[in-house]
Specification:
- With 256 residues, this protein is mainly α.
- The chain has nine helices and no strands.
- The longest helix is centred in the first third of the chain and has 38 residues.
- About 4% of the residues have low confidence.
């Protein structure tokens, strides 16, 4: 008897794979539509220009009276607000995007794995948003005030809108990822990469590491560095506490 699989056997193995590809396509289409709908709504109200004004508000508030941001490229006044629009639309549609991802992978997970994945997806999203909000509402105002206090009287500050956008995005990513520290701690502990005791012993080293990271990814001012390093240290402690609870409630049935 030949060991070559029959046509029916091959068809049986290929069909589920094709179905998964079709489902993945459908999920991606739905996620894309959600982003497009959010973008269309934002384009109508408040509009791309108003979104950029909102993003630039913390800096403009610290500029000298009458000073504004400038555009050094001809196309910048169009492209930069459009980038802001797309970025904001994606953030607004993120719950739908994450739901589509979850709906695609959930059927292949055991019940205890669902208890592990879903809380991590939701909490990591919430923490990232909190990090971005903390950066915008607290850090930006303090950092720009600190920087402007060192500006010579002979200089008129007029930052470029593209440079400001790049700065904002890098800061948002830095603070958003920094606020993911509890998730990293939980995952490492849950996957038995490190023990809770090891995490506690690493506490003093993490404090030093947090300040090193803050010095690298933030502007060279003490305000932003402290604003990033201190929350990271606090979140590390929260991660250790949460990891203990998470491990207890997400064990496989045969491991309990």
């Amino acid at each position: 008897m030949s060991d070559t699989p029959s046509k029916d056997e091959l068809a049986g193995t290929e069909q589920p794979f094709v179905q998964h590809l079709i489902e993945l396509r459908d999920r991606l289409v739905k996620a894309t539509i959600a982003v497009m709908v959010a973008g269309a709504a934002l384009a109508i109200y408040p509009g791309p220009a108003e979104l950029y004004d909102l993003l630039a508000a913390p800096l403009v508030a610290q500029l000298p009276a009458g000073a504004t941001l400038i555009a050094t490229s001809v196309i910048s006044p169009f492209l930069v607000p459009l980038k802001i629009l797309l970025m904001t639309a994606f953030l607004l549609a993120l719950p739908v995007v994450l739901y589509q991802m979850w709906a695609f992978v959930a059927p292949g997970l055991y019940s205890h794995e669902k208890k592990l994945v879903m809380p991590l997806v939701v909490s990591s999203t919430v923490l990232f948003m909190i990090g971005v909000a903390f950066c915008y509402f607290f850090v930006f105002g303090q950092v720009f005030k600190f920087i402007q206090s060192f500006a010579p009287k002979s200089i008129t500050a007029a930052p470029d809108i593209e440079a400001y956008l790049s700065f904002v995005i890098s800061m948002f990513i830095a603070f958003g990822l920094a606020f993911e520290v509890p998730i990293v701690v939980i995952v490492l502990a849950r996957m038995n990469v490190v023990t809770i005791e090891k995490l506690k012993d690493f506490r003093s080293y993490f404090i030093v590491l947090a300040f090193i990271i803050a010095a690298i990814v933030t502007p060279p001012d003490v305000v932003s560095q402290l604003a990033l390093a201190i929350p990271m240290c606090i979140l590390y402690e929260i991660g250790i506490w949460a990891a203990q609870l998470f491990i207890k409630h997400t064990q496989a049935p045969d491991a309990q």
